[in-house]
Structure formats: structure tokens, C-alpha cells
Design brief:
Layout (H helix, E strand, L loop, with lengths): L2 H27 L2 H21 L1 H4 L5 H11 L6 H9 L1 H7 L2 H28 L7 H12 L2 H21 L3 H16 L3 H17 L5 H22 L6 H14 L3
Length: 257
């Protein structure tokens, strides 16, 4: 395949993903009820991660990467400025970075767009269960949206991004390039995106200084998220009431309820 054609496709994927996220934001802005439900969904999403990975967040070795995942992938923060910057420099990313960095950028964009779509779908379900507790509403919305194949894709993409970041931090030239980009990025109004990139490299770079830590971190996430996925999707059969009760009990504990 022509490298230029491949690069064009990568930049289009990034811009298309950011456009989908922007459209969802416009829909939310037009609906106060949807906006409130979405905030609640993201809040409980963040709470679930913090509860599930409390040990990592409190660990001297793993807190940095765990905090990066929480703040950049599972947070209720508004990422509109970073997203706009991401779309703006999609072409420049292709021209500046090697192939594996471009692939991570595409994965991040598509992961973000998919996560936002699922969160908005959950927010629509949230408003139909206003007589339940917040934790029950979150679980009901999560199960109502379903889409097990997409949920598994989300997890595999997160793990792939984490693994690739861990590998990329070993490339000294790439670290130097990021530092050299700091001042131009700030002058061009791309500070949020630059901070995101540098933070990811710094956190995973610190983790890879000790053999086995990056693997342990990503394996822990895979095992716990697979437990969550298997419990939730395994609980959809009405004929398995005991399993359903056990699943909800585990989920409530993960949510701190």
C-alpha cells in the first residue's frame, strides 16, 4: 500500500472519530436531561474504576499509570479542547511520528468515539429508571445497552494502547521529539494534547524501568475488566437468577454501593 494513502486514511479516521464525538456533544447540549444523565453515567464510570483499582491507585509503583487511565480514559472530564486539538493535528501526527505512534493515535480516537457513543446510549436508558438507586440505574443502563462484542473490543484496545505505550517509551528518540514539540505545541494552542502525550509517556516510562511491572499492570486490568464483562453479560439469562444476584452483588461492591 502507498504510505501516503495509508497516512491519509489514518488522518481521516482520527478526524471522523472526533467529528462523531463532537456531534454527540451537540446533541447533549440540546438536552439538559441527557446532559445530566451523561454526567451521572461518567461519574459512576469513574467511581467504578477507582473502586476496582484502589490498590493500584494507592501503590507507589502503579499509581501513575492507574491515575493516567482514570483521568484520560474513565474520567468525567470534558475533553472538548483536547479533541479539537487532536483533530487539528491529525495530519501532522502522520508526518512527524513513526507508524506505531500513528496506530496508537488512531486507536485512541476510535476508542474515544466508541466510548462516547456507549455512554450516550447508557444516558438514554438512565432516564427510564429514575425510581432506582444510582448504582442500580448504572447497572441497568449498562446491561440494557449491552453490545458485548464492542465492550470486549474496548478492553482489547485499551490493553493494546497500554502495551504499545510501554514499548514506545523505550525509544529515546521519540521521548526527545516529544520534548522538542513542547514549546511549538503551546504556541499553537495545542497544550492539552501535548500534556496528554507527555503524561502518558512519562507514566509508562517510569513503569517500564522495572522488569515485569508493565505486564503486571496490564494483566491486572485485563483480568478485572474481564471479570466485570463476564459477570454482566453472563447475568442476562433470566433462567440463572442465582448467577444474576451474584453478579449484581459483585458489581455493587465494585461501585462502592
Amino acid at each position: 500500500m502507498d504510505p501516503k494513502l495509508h497516512s491519509m486514511k489514518a488522518s481521516k479516521k482520527i478526524r471522523d472519530a472526533m467529528a462523531r464525538v463532537d456531534e454527540l456533544r451537540r446533541l447533549t447540549a440540546d438536552s439538559p436531561n441527557l446532559a445530566s444523565a451523561l454526567h451521572a453515567i461518567k461519574s459512576w464510570q469513574s467511581k467504578r474504576f477507582a473502586q476496582t483499582y484502589q490498590d493500584l491507585l494507592e501503590s507507589e509503583d502503579y499509581a501513575g499509570c492507574a491515575r493516567f487511565f482514570l483521568e484520560e480514559l474513565y474520567s468525567e472530564r470534558n475533553y472538548s479542547h483536547r479533541d479539537a486539538q487532536f483533530a487539528k493535528v491529525a495530519g501532522a501526527i502522520e508526518l512527524t511520528f513513526p507508524e506505531n505512534v500513528i496506530a496508537v493515535a488512531v486507536s485512541l480516537a476510535e476508542l474515544h468515539a466508541t466510548t462516547e457513543r456507549l455512554d450516550h446510549a447508557m444516558a438514554s436508558c438512565w432516564n427510564h429508571t429514575n425510581n432506582a438507586s444510582p448504582s442500580e440505574r448504572y447497572l441497568d443502563a449498562w446491561k440494557s445497552v449491552g453490545e458485548p462484542a464492542i465492550r470486549h473490543w474496548q478492553l482489547q484496545t485499551v490493553l493494546h494502547i497500554g502495551q504499545t505505550l510501554a514499548e514506545l517509551t523505550q525509544k529515546r528518540g521519540l521521548r526527545l521529539l516529544l520534548k522538542m514539540m513542547r514549546r511549538p505545541a503551546e504556541m499553537a494552542g495545542l497544550g492539552d494534547l501535548q500534556t496528554f502525550l507527555e503524561t502518558g509517556f512519562e507514566r509508562f516510562g517510569r513503569l517500564t524501568k522495572t522488569d515485569g511491572q508493565a505486564t503486571h499492570f496490564l494483566t491486572t486490568i485485563r483480568e478485572r475488566e474481564m471479570t466485570w464483562l463476564n459477570e454482566q453479560f453472563g447475568a442476562t439469562n433470566a433462567g440463572h437468577k442465582a448467577k444474576n444476584a451474584q453478579s449484581d452483588d459483585w458489581a455493587f461492591r465494585a461501585l462502592g454501593a
